[in-house]
Amino acid sequence: xxxxxxLLSIVVLFLSSILTKLLHxxxxxxxxxxxxxxxxxxxxxxxxxxxxxxxxxxxxxxDVVMKTNEPMTNVSHEILPIVEPHIQKWNKIYGGIYLHWYxxxxxxxxxxxxxxxEGIKKILxxxxxxxxxxxxxxxxxxxxxxxxGESLKGMIPATVDSVHxxxxxxxxxxxxxxxxxxxxxxxxxDAIHYAVFGIxxxxxENVKTGEMxxxxxxxxxxxxxxYHDPDKSKRITIDDLVDECKTFYFAGQETxxxxxxxxxxxxxxxxxxxxxxxxxVTDVFGNEDPNHEGIMKLKTVCLCGLLSSxxxxxxxxxxxxxxxxxxxxxxxxxxxxxxxxxxxxxxxLVLPSGIxxxxxxxxxxxxxxxxxxxxxxxxxERFAEGITEATNNDAAAFLxxxxxxxxxxxxxxxxxxxxxxxxxILQRYSFTLSPDYVHLLTQxxxxxxxxxxxxxxxxx
Length: 460
Description:
Organism: Eucalyptus grandis
Main location: membrane
Membrane topology: Single-pass membrane protein
Binding site for heme: 408
Number of helices: 18
C-alpha cells in the first residue's frame, strides 16, 4: 500500500509539473507580456486562452473567400484586405504599433519605418550574429558567393534552356490560356537543379581524376569547397551541406517563382507598360537569347544592403522600374518575423524576452504616408530615379527581400532568372489576362493566386 501511495505521489507530481508548465506557457507568460506592453501604452486584440487571435484571423479570411469568388472586370492591387484582412482591421483600430497573438506567442507589430530600422539593427542584426555564432556567418558567406559573380553567370545558359523548353510547349497552346504560376515553377526548379546545384558526384569524380582542379563557382561548388576546406574552423559537415541544399532549393523556388509571375500579371493588365518593356528588351537583345552582357545592362545596384549602405542611388532601367513596382505591390513575403531572445529597448519601448517582432512588409509597401494616395496603383515611374528617390531615402520603406544581414541571399539569383524569363517571353508573345481570372490571393510561403493565374498568349 505504501508503495502504491508512493507511486501515486510520483504520478501526481509528474502531472502537476506538466500542468504547471502548460499553464505557464499558455496563460501566465502571455499575460505577463500583455501587461508589460500595456503598461507602456501598447494595445492590441486581447489574448484568448490557447488560440490567441487565430480564431478571429481564420474567420476574417473565410469571409474574404466567401466575398471574392467571381471573375473581376477591374482588378485592384489593394491586396492587404484580401491577403491579411486581420492586419487591415487591426491597423485601423490600433494604429501602426500593437500587440497580437498566434496561439500563446506574442507579436509586436511595427510599421513605423524608423522603428523598423532600429529593430533590424538591434534584433535582426548584431544580436542574432552573436547568438548564432560562426555557423550563421559561414552559411551566409556560402550563399552570398553562390548568388554573385561567376555563379550567376554560370546559371544563365541553364535558365535560357529551361525557358526555351517552356516556350516550345507554348507553341502548341497559342491563343489558348496558360497557367503562369505553374509554368514558372518548372523554370525555377530546372534552373536551381541544373545551374545552381550541378551534379555533385560528377564533380567529385572529375576532381579525383584530375579533369577538374576545382569544384566550381556555383552554390554547390562553394559548398563542396567548404566541405573539404583544410581550415577546420571553416569546414562544414555533410549535414550542413544537405541542409543548405534543401534551404536554397525550396526557399529559392518559392521566391523566384513569385517575382516573374506577378510581373507578368501586371504587364498583362497594363498593356502600355508591356509594350515599353518589349521595346527595351529588343534594344538590348534584339532577337537573340539573353546573355550575361545584356543582363548587366538591365542591372541596377544592390537592393539588400544594411540600411542605406548599399541602397540604390541611380536611375533604374525600365525593366527594373517594372520589377521594383511589382515587388512593392506583390512582395514575395508579407512580413518578417524575429523572436526577441532577451529584453531589448526599441525606441521608448522595453520589449520583454519571448516577444516576437513583426515587420509588416505588405503594410509598409502599401502605406499612403510613404507612397502617396496612389499607393495601390501600378506606377513603375515611381522608381525612375532609383529606390532612394522613390522612398525619400527611407531604407525601410521598400523591403521585398528584407533588409540588413538577414536579407534574402538569393536576390540576385531571383532577379537574374526573372529578367531572362521576362525578356524571352516579351520577344515572342504579347499577353492579356484571362477573363476568368479571380483576384483571390493566399499566402503559402509567398503570396500566390489561389485559383491560379491564366493569361492568353498572342504570338508576335
